[in-house]
Amino acid sequence: MKKLMMMTLMGLCVVKSIQAQDKCGAQMIKEAIIAQNPSNALVLKQQEEQIKQRAEAYQRDMEGVKMKTTATVTVPVVFHIILTSAQQTALGGISGIEERVYNQIQVLNDDYAKLNADTAFVPTPFKPVAGGSQIRFGLAHRKPDGTSTPGYEIRTTTSASYAFPASGAKYTNQGGLDAWDPSLYLNVWVINLGTSLLGFTVPRSLLFSFPSQELGVVITHGAFGKRTASTTPYFISGIDKGRTLTHEVGHYFELIHIWGDDNGLCPNNGGQDDGIADTPPQANSSSGVPIFPTYDACSPTYPGIMFMNYMDYSNDTALYMFTNGQVARMHSNILPSNSQDYTLGIHPELLDWPTGVTSIISDNNFLLYPNPSSGKVTLSLAARSGLQQIEVVNLLGKIVYSTQAQSNQTNYTIDLSLLSKGMYVVRCVFKEGIQTQKMMLE
Questions:
Q1: How far is Cα 330 from Cα 49, in angstroms, rounded to an integer?
Q2: For residue 32, which of 181, 200, 191 has the smallest C-alpha distance?
Q3: Most confidently modeled of 160-164, 290-294, 432-436?
C-alpha cells in the first residue's frame, strides 16, 4: 500500500510539475488517494462531513460559555531534521538550527493562542471572528524509550533534496528518521523539498491510505523557523515568520484551505469552500501581500476575502489569524474530552526531562497557589524539605526563573509577572531528586 501510494504521488507530481502556486501539498495528497482508488473520493467526502459535524456540535456546546475555558492541551513536538552538511551550514549550523527550533515553537504558541503581535492588523470586520485556541506546543524532552531529548534530532544526509511525498525521509533505514509514536508526539520532518512546495501534512483522517509511521508534517528547511534579525541566514523570500508550520499544523488538526481546493468554484455554484461558517467564501488561494479589502468572484463585496487567514497562501507577513470556527474544528479533533482519535494532549510527562520524575520522599511535595496565576505565586513546602533550588522552565526547556532555597524557609513568593502568558513548569531540586508541577500564567 505504501509503495503504491508513493508511486501514485510521484506520478501526480510529474503531471502537475508542482506549479508555483502549490505551496502546500494537501490537495495533491487527496488527488493521489483518489487516483489510487476512485472510490476513495466518497471516503474523503464522508470523512469531511463527519469532521464538519463534530466541529459544529462542539461549537454549539461551547456557546454557553463563549469558549472562555482556561483548560489547555500541550502537544509534545519533535523535529526530525534531515539535511546535507551544506544545508545545515546555510541555516547557521547547529546553533542556528537550535534557534529555529525554539522560535518555531514560540511562533506556534503565539499564533494558536492569538498572542501574535500582528493580530492587531486583523481588519475591523473580521475582528469579532478572530479566534485563539487552547492548543499549546512544547518540545518533547522524553523519547519513546524514556531517555532525554532536546526535542529535535539531526541526521546529515547526502541527498540534496527529497521529491514529494518524501516518504524516504520518514524511515531511518532509507536514510531518514523514523517517526516517534504519532499518538503521543507531533512529528515534524525538516528537509529540502527542492521545489516551490513549502510543506505538506498527513493527518490522522488519512490513515486509511497511509501507514501511521507517516503521520505528521513535512516542511522545507527554508521555511523553518522565524527570522529574528536581518542577518539571520537563509529563508525563502516572503516566508520567514514561521507561518508555514502554523498552516501545516492546521491541516494536522483537520483544517482545509480557506478556498476549499475546489478549482475556483463558489459555494453557490457547486464549490465546497472550507466548511467553516465564519470564513468568507473564496475562489482561489491568495499570494504575496494583498491589500485589504480584496475581492474575488466568491466574495465580490465588502469586506471581501480573508487573505490574512493562516490557511491561505499569502506571504508570512500577511498571515495573522484563525477564526472561531476554525478553532472549534481543531478543538473538536484534539481536546481529549471531545475526540476519541487524538491522544496528543494527555501525556504532559513527555514535556519533562526524565530527571523531572525522580522518585523522592513524600515530605518533599510542594504546593503552588494560585494556579492558574496572573503573575505572583506562592510555593509552600513541607517543614523539612531538603530543597536546594527552585526553577521555572518554559515549554522550550529554558530556565526563565531560578533561586536558591534557604535552609529554614518553607514558603516562597515567586514573581513571574514579567513572563508571557502560557504554561510553565516549576521544578524543585531536592537532595533526593527533582519534582515538578505545571503552572499556568494567564
A1: 15
A2: 200
A3: 290-294
Which of 2.60.40.3080, 3.40.50.720, 2.30.40.10, 2.40.10.10 would CATH assign to domain 354-441? 2.60.40.3080
Q: Are 279 and 270 in contact (CB under 8 A)?
A: no
How far is it, in rounded angstroms, from Cα 207 to Cα 187? 15
- 78-135 tens-digit pLDDT: 999 999 999 999 999 998 999 999 999 999 999 999 999 999 999 999 999 999 999 9
Per DSSP, what are the bridge partners of residue 188? 79, 217
Cell for 302? 465588502
User: Tell me: the pLDDT tens digits for 193-220?
Assistant: 988 899 999 999 999 999 999 999 999 9
Contact 227/213 with Cβ under 8 angstroms? no
**What are the residue ranges of CATH 2.60.40.3080 in the chain?**
354-441
Q: Distance between CA 280 and CA 295 in Å, rounded?
A: 10
In CATH terms, the fold of domain 2-348 is: Collagenase (Catalytic Domain) (3.40.390)
State the DSSP code for 180.
P
Rg (CA), the chain: 23
Q: How far is CA 225 from the centre of its chain?
A: 12
Q: Are 202 and 214 in contact (CB under 8 A)?
A: yes
